[in-house]
Amino acid sequence: MAAGSVVSRGTGMFRLTLQAAALGTLAVGGAYNTANTLPTSLYTLLIGGALNSVLVPQLVRARTEHADGGQAHEQRLVTLVLSVLAVGTVVGVVLAPWIVGLYMPDTPDNHQVFELTVAFARFLLPQIFFYGLFFMLGQILNARGKFGAMMWTPVLNNIVLITMFGLYRWLVPAPGDAASVTPAEVRLLGIGTTIGIALQAVCLIPYLAGTGFRWRPRFDWRGTGLGKSVAAARWTLLFVLVNQVALTVVTRYANAVDAVLQKAGAGNSAYFFAQNIWMLPQGIITVSLVTAMLPRMSRAVAEHRLGDVREDLSRGLRVTGVAIVPAAFFFLAFGPQIATVMFSYSSSGAASAQPLGQMLQAFALGLVPFSAQYLLLRGFYAFEDTRTPFWMAVWISGLDIILATGCHLFLPPRWVVIGMAAAYAASYAGGLLVTGLKLRRRLEGRLDGKRLVRTYGKLMAAAGAASAVGWAVARICSGAVPAPVVGSVLALAAGGVTMLVLFVLLARLLRVSELRSLPGLG
User: Would the keyword Ribonucleoprotein be found if you checked this record's keyword annotation (predicted)?
Assistant: First the structure.
């Protein structure tokens, strides 16, 4: 799974770099990114949260308790999910202008960008159905202990998008403002993006057939146990709704910065790219581990083995921390160099990469609580408790909205979105504390806290010292070469290698036993 995630995320980073080169981080890139946010947001709101958190425990339980091994339950569930997705997709396409209006205002100064965003959205919103199909089939595979396919098939999507952005860059070497984008260009970007997601989903079908699963539509939903899934999903829907409210507020504020500073690259696209880079380690390490952990923890809860659940959570936090903590400090030390290397080839120019790098630094240390929060929530889902995660989302999203609004009102436009990145990180730090206390109660008052604090304290000390030395080395190297891109490459290579070597040496000196979980470093 980790290997599939590495290849998938690696090709995804190349796709993001090529996307920035083709569309830039200004009006055209902002319109595309805002429109491309809509399918994932609406899919998650419709049913995605339930698929990711509620249905795996339900599927595991059905396979254990039902006489047919849960086959009928799976068929009914697939039918229900696809029906909801089909209706939601049609409604989303019809209501595209109103949905876009939630994320950006349609003002005289912003009208061309608004209309371009709506045009993109009509082609991109059908992704709702294919996202749902991908995750539905993937969760059935996960419940059957087959994890690899779901990690590898996104590579196909990335290949399609890399080809599409490369073609667009060739056809349109230097995109102008929103009014200059032709209908043919909108169709290329919109249809090409949706085809990539569709291919990613359809390619799971042969893997699922190989496990013996055969689907036929079943609408006999009454009295079959799906009511329990729907009841659990109710809280997950509210959980997702709260998160989407926060996302909508932040996107609207970021688009407002783009409207004021049209050439600065300090708004929504920069925030989108910085956040995607920042989440990369969590996507490779934490998501891969949690995907395998959730079915096992669900079985342990069903069999009342709370000690095993506690040990899984503790070990998961400690093992992921070995990679997540130094990654967070790496972003803090080298954010500007990363942005310069990846996004100086953008049609917006090298100068627009600097706000992006500063956003990455603002996000940086929040990666630690963000990753830990993601893992701990799966502890509640193993108990089939979706109510507590909802209240955690209220706390985190509420804090994020308050802090982001403060940035919007009181910071200069150039620093608003950088401040919102720091606000996002701070909100997860506060949320992690509350989540840990509540999960501790579910696990009979114990969460292996002393060992976790000791391990993370050592990791933070080692990563902090190593990143400081690496930063100093990068500063020296970047000043030795006048060309900004070449200097950033040299600084990133020298500083990054210095940080990695020193981190490993210090972690060994501090006796961080979990270091053995990283191949070649134990």
Answer: no
Residue 70 neighbours by CB under 8 Å, 6+ apart: 59, 62, 63, 64, 143
Judge whether 103 and 23 are in contact, CB under 8 Å. no
Distances (CA, A) of 508 to 62, 218, 470: 45, 56, 18
Task: Name the token pair of 93.
Answer: 């396409």
**Cα(first)–Cα(last) distance of the chain, in Å?**
20
Question: Residue 492 is encoded by which pair of tokens?
Answer: 């990133």
**503 is written with which tokens?**
């981190």
Task: Tell me the two tokens of residue 251.
Answer: 């996107």
For residues 308 and 292, what is the distance between their CA atoms, to the nearest angstrom? Answer: 14
Highest mean pLDDT among 105-109, 166-170, 188-192, 206-210 belongs to 188-192
Q: Which two tokens stand for residue 198?
A: 């569709």
From the number of C-beta atoms within 10 Å of its C-beta (0-12, 13-18, 19+), residue 457 rates as: exposed
Q: Which residue has better confidence, 85 or 76? A: 85
User: 125-162: per-residue pLDDT in tens?
Assistant: 999 999 888 888 887 787 677 767 777 888 899 999 99
Q: Containing H/E element for 509?
A: helix 484-509
State the DSSP H helix or E strand holding residue 344, giving kind and residue range, or none if neither.
Answer: none
Q: How far apart are CA 94 and CA 497, in angstroms?
A: 51
* Cα separation, 347 vs 25, whole angstroms: 8
**Residue 146 φ then ψ, to 5°:** -110, 105
- What is the predicted pLDDT for the residue at 520? 46
Q: Would you tell me how many other CB atoms lie within 10 Å of the CB of residue 441?
A: 11
The CA distance from 16 to 13, in Å, is 5
* Residues recorded for the chain: 522
Question: d(Cα 304, Cα 306) in Å, to the nearest integer?
Answer: 6
Cβ-count burial of 414 within 10 angstroms (0-12 exposed, 13-18 middle, 19+ buried)?
Answer: middle
Q: How far is CA 91 from the centre of its chain?
A: 25
Contact assessment for residue 417 and residue 253, using Cβ atoms and an 8 Å cutoff: yes
